[in-house]
Write a structure and sequence with these properties.
about 60% strand, 21-stranded mixed beta sheet
């Protein structure tokens, strides 16, 4: 893979520098960052204080202190005003990790092709074909790179993108004995997302349909945590799942606000068609920002339904199997360092996967100097439906409080184009997270140096 990636990049560069200059233009860009950060007590226990061997071992794994670097390089060949060839490459490395390029010798294998697609226009139609970034419903449904075909019909203040994503495709797998099984399993996403702009108002109704005749192996993600007893890998058969909703964005000069509503419906077969599950879930979200002279006051909140009867075949917990990514708070919602997740009964949750959760935020961003900004945010989060939590003494209780989180972020522009972020966060953990002997609140702090070009 590494040799192929290097050859692909070399071929693109050779192509760029050998083509006649008048034939086309070349755009180069990118992003670079280096971060130092530490996550502590993300298991909910201080590994130095607990006597339980399992908690101590998990704490060693979850307590992270590291330095890492990410480099993204963008190369676009512009043939003419109607045709572009877009490529984005990424290299990630953890300093001192022998598997990355940031060890002694710098000979690791951390090269990724994030995007590679052709972008062309024919009249009022703009099409993109290849591996590209796709975003839907602010990330509550989808925000990721994917192999896709996107066709947008543009007319004045109206744009109507239609997208097909190949979400999953598997022709062979291994059984429990290691033998090869030949089959045809795939999942397709179909998206329609019209955008209507009228002055300071933007309306975006949308829909996503996920379809498969055999989705075995298309397993659940972390958002399915409460239903892992009935949603096992390789159980899926026919899938007909859909999401419908709308975004509203309004800019009123002194501020702005936004709304998002989503309903999830449809059904899927389990156990070779012997059982069927119905999807009946929803999500609502809103946010606002008001300018206050030297900065802004902002707030947001969201509610994603849970399931009050996880043992039945009505799936009422909002989830997206693959593609969902919505960053929110620093600790509970991935934030700046996106490296660790807090735990509920030993399972990583919630991170950027929004399901069975309600959360609210208030904050202020101040700009006391042209190159300096300070953001102060507070978050409260709880589960939409209670979970049974087992404490370290084996006692069970139903809980929903995830806790209150305080975030501080200071950003300073060292020189034009180069910024330094200082981030600190502390979670006053609720009883749905951690209980019993040695329970301790999580915290993180760190710094990030970054530039874009």
């Amino acid at each position: 893979m590494r040799k192929f990636a290097i050859l692909a990049l070399a071929a693109l560069l050779l192509f760029a520098f050998t083509m006649p200059a008048p034939a086309m233009e070349y755009n180069f860009g990118g992003y670079w960052r280096t971060r130092w950060y530490t996550n502590q007590n993300f298991t909910g226990y201080d590994k130095e204080d607990v006597t339980d061997a399992g908690l101590k071992a998990e704490g060693v794994k979850k307590d992270i202190t590291r330095v890492d670097t990410r480099t993204r390089l963008y190369f676009t060949a512009v043939f003419n005003e109607n045709l572009k060839f877009v490529n984005k490459f990424e290299m990630d490395a953890t300093w001192g990790d022998s598997s990355s390029y940031a060890d002694i010798g710098a000979d690791g294998k951390n090269f990724e092709i994030k995007n590679s697609y052709v972008d062309f226009k024919v009249g009022a139609v703009n099409a993109k074909v290849g591996v590209q970034g796709v975003k839907l419903a602010r990330g509550f449904i989808f925000d990721d790179d994917a192999a896709a075909v996107s066709v947008a019909f543009n007319a004045g203040n109206v744009s109507i993108p239609v997208v097909w994503i190949k979400a999953f495709d598997e022709d062979e797998s291994k059984d429990e004995n290691g033998a090869t099984i030949t089959h045809k399993r795939d999942v397709d996403y179909f998206i329609v997302s019209p955008i209507i702009s009228a002055g300071s108002v933007k309306i975006n109704p949308f829909g996503l349909y996920a379809y498969s005749e055999d989705a075995g192996g298309w397993g659940p993600n972390a958002g399915w945590g409460l239903h892992r007893d009935i949603f096992k890998r390789d159980q899926f058969g026919d899938v007909d799942m859909y999401y419908v909703g709308a975004n509203l964005d309004v800019d009123f000069g002194a501020g702005s606000f936004w709304l998002t509503g989503i309903y999830q419906g449809g059904e899927a077969e389990l156990d070779g068609g012997e059982e069927t599950v119905d999807f009946k879930a929803y999500l609502g979200a809103a946010g606002a920002k008001v300018n206050i002279g030297i900065g802004d006051f902002h707030m947001q909140g969201f509610y994603a339904s849970g399931d009050d009867s996880p043992g039945d075949k009505d799936m009422e917990e909002f989830f997206v199997p693959q593609g969902q990514s919505y960053y929110w708070s620093e600790i509970m919602g991935y934030g700046t360092f996106d490296s660790g997740k807090i735990q509920i009964n030993g399972e990583d949750r919630p991170g950027d996967k929004i399901g069975n959760i309600m959360a609210g935020n208030v904050g202020v961003t101040l700009k006391p100097a042209p190159k300096l900004s300070v953001s102060l945010d507070a978050w409260y989060a709880a589960l939409a439906e209670d979970v049974v939590v087992i404490d370290s003494d084996g006692n069970a209780s139903e809980e929903n409080a995830l806790g209150i989180e305080a975030n501080v972020k200071v950003t300073y522009q060292i020189v034009e184009g180069l910024s330094l972020d200082l981030v600190g966060a502390y979670l006053f953990a609720g009883d749905a997270l951690y209980q019993g002997e040695g329970a301790t609140d999580p915290y993180e702090f760190g710094t990030r140096l970054s530039l874009s070009f």
